[in-house]
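Here is a tokenized protein:
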Amino acid sequence: MYSSEQLNAIHTSKVGFEFEFYSDSDLTKTKDALTRTLGKKIRIEDKAHSDFKPSADVFKMEPDNSGGTGMIELVTGPLPYAEAKVLMAKVLKWIKANGSTNSRSSIHVNLAFDTEKMGAKFDMAKLDIGKFVLSFDEDLVYETFPNRKDSVYAKSIKFVMPLNGMTQRSPGKLDWKNYQFVNEKYYGVNFTKIPKGYIEFRYLGGDGYESKYPQILKMMDHFIVSLYTALDQPAYNEKEEKELDRLLQAHSGVIKAYRSYDDFIKLYPDIRLMVDLKTATQLIKLYYPQMRERIFNLLTKAEMREGLINYDSDQGKMQVKGAKLDKCFLLQGFDIVECELQGNIIECDLFDCEIKNSSLIKCNIFGHSTVTGCKVENSYTSRNVEVNDCYVFGQNGVFSGQMKGGIFRQGRATKHAKFDGTEVIEIEKIK
């Protein structure tokens, strides 16, 4: 049961939604039908994440092929709580009758408070991220939506590391800026929206979410009350200090491995380190201080537990080979060879890899790699790469691979590019 103050916070909140779903009709007919159902004007945008900002009166609908060909996203503006929960019920009922969802479909909930009614204390810019992370009951979310646990697109926010990778106990008075809390959009809570005046909850969704109105409403209330409490009581309490120590302890192996090469090889015997493809212990110890920050990222942000890591001392680059990296909620700036990957991969060179259900941004894909069910943005794809059921876009991308199914939304293609059953929308042929 909620207190009167918490109930007041719920009813003075502002709620926006992002519904990802598939429709039995095309985009225009879907827009027309939802316009009648919701009594709102809806704009059709020609690309995902368009610049148009929805309002309480004008929403937007755009293609979002993160879930494969045909996914649609309906984005609302911020609405008063009472109106938002009614609108959500209408959208879910419409999807149930006229469309569908799958395991890659999500419903994002965007939250803020009406500061004119609640006061300046509840301005989102004043949110202490560490306070929220340590106080938030995430287990309740996963009990309600168990299929969303360990999602690479909505990873647990219970991730805390000391900024410098060394062990630190929680001080009597916490300062979240001493620690690395969640700071990317791929977590269950996206705090990068704070400068825009709200935060985004990404936990909810999955196959058949349109039939889960009571569960979604329960979680929406839980999100609002948790946010209210973190803003209303910004001081850290003893329970939250203990939670910080618990989370740091859960990562103690990673933190200990940060200290020295000797600690690393004891804790991660299945990961082999090299420098310039040499395995001499003294050489690796010499370069370990230069390597460990990126090793730290591989252990925490890609959950690497086996394989080879080579440090190229001339180029200052890190190369990974023979690893299974299927929980990459952020992997950036590595050379990846003969690995299995899934998640969010940015500015990496990929050689002979198997990549599934991922978002690839500004990557170079070489050799006999296979890319399946992915978003490939502004990337280079060489001629022997197989791209299956993907969404390829970005005017700076160059495609020379072999694509089956999916959508080639935008980009350049060489004479070696081959398309089989692919919907090609905008393509520039280059030599």
Remarks:
- Residues 35 and 351 are 47 Å apart (CA to CA).
- The longest helix spans residues 281-301.
- The radius of gyration is 23 Å.
- The mean pLDDT is 91.
